[in-house]
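Exercise: predict the structure of this protein bound to flavin-adenine dinucleotide.
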Amino acid sequence: MSNPHPVLVVGAGPVGLTTALALRAEGLPVTVLEADGENRQRPGSRAIFYHRQTLQLWEQMRSGLGWEIARAGLVWSTKRTFWGETQVYERTYPLPRPDVLPSSTNLGQVDAEAILFRHCREAGIEFAWNQQVSAVSSTPEGVVLQTAAGREWQARYIVGTDGGRSVVRKSVGIELEGPRIEDAFVIVDVAEDPDDPIRPERLYYYEHPAVEKRNVLLVPFRNGIRADIQLRRGDNPDHFNQPDSVKHWLGRVLPPKYADRVTWVSTYQFMQVVARSFTDQHRRVLLAGEAAHLFAPFGARGLNSGVPDAVAAATSIAQALNASNPAQAADAIQQAAERRREAALYNRNASNLALEHMRADGLGTRLKRKASALLARYGTRAGSYLDSAPFGPRASARKSSDGIY
Ligand SMILES: Cc1cc2nc3c(=O)[nH]c(=O)nc-3n(C[C@H](O)[C@H](O)[C@H](O)COP(=O)(O)OP(=O)(O)OC[C@H]3O[C@@H](n4cnc5c(N)ncnc54)[C@H](O)[C@@H]3O)c2cc1C
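Solution:
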């Protein structure tokens, strides 16, 4: 290898941008290779909900970043859950203290990425656009990447943050393991009417009476609201996502004027998959974000776990570059890969629990949900279960060596 880059990041999505910032925080020069051109339009209807842990990690890698995303986002303080027409749970949290990062914030992924990208530019990170990586080969000494246009790049280490269809992952022979979930969800983003702002409340409806008893989740974010309808088995997703159909059901779960303010519609059948390994056989390639795992978004574990993947990758690559011998370098990479895979398995399990609850396939779950709906009128415990179960167990329940999920 002649004069390789110390490290290259493949993919300028939110996890790639975060990886680049975390590597800069380690004092390393970074170049990000991105398949798209610089003025691309990024898709909507993806992440909106960022946990405090994510904001803290962003703040640690670049002073002011976590706070900027926290302030750009909307903090909803009330959550309410309904069974049909009956409210079964309500909780209002105190407003966040001005000197502590909020427990979460809600901001469209496109806006969060724009902030991350500006910070990357300010941190001196290089971007190479229109570099669609088509093949990656690793050796004990480093990595060689080929692009579709025939250019070659060389690096001592790379981080594959090239998303769910990761060419990096496939090139080094790592498979994703896990199922695809049959249930389909139609997710619609709607622009807020500035003259009539949306109440900062997260609403979850079991068996919403206005949409033939389908489950509906409504989450406000800065300048918008996300409406998520869980289709029933036998529903045709290609019907529910058509403009006339969206207008019809959306106008029944939100004030009708919102049916004319749709900004993005997507249909999802979610994967619950984790890469067999987060590193290659030579410990020169690390995977992070959706290149390494794909989860259903209930509980918001995708990007919120991609950010600690990015931090672990950056820290371990800095250690490996400074290691006194190859075995020590390989060990630093291996440990980071194992820790983040363990976290991904935990996150997948948490989002599996949320999905099982929402799908209610088993008689036990159906009975527990119905009994809780009846009991909720006598106390908050049953209501609290109905409110929280669609999002999986709380992250704070996790006991891991570093406490990061
Ligand atoms: C409906 C929905 C709601 C969600 N809500 C949340 C939420 O509230 N909170 C949360 O934490 N997560 C959420 N997620 C998950 C979140 O959107 C993802 O985890 C996140 O986008 C993953 O980012 P990434 O950078 O890994 O991948 P991507 O965003 O897919 O970025 C990959 C990048 O790599 C580039 N690329 C691809 N192939 C190549 C190649 N061969 N060469 C070079 N570049 C390449 C792409 O152009 C892209 O720029 C949600 C997802 C969905 C679908």
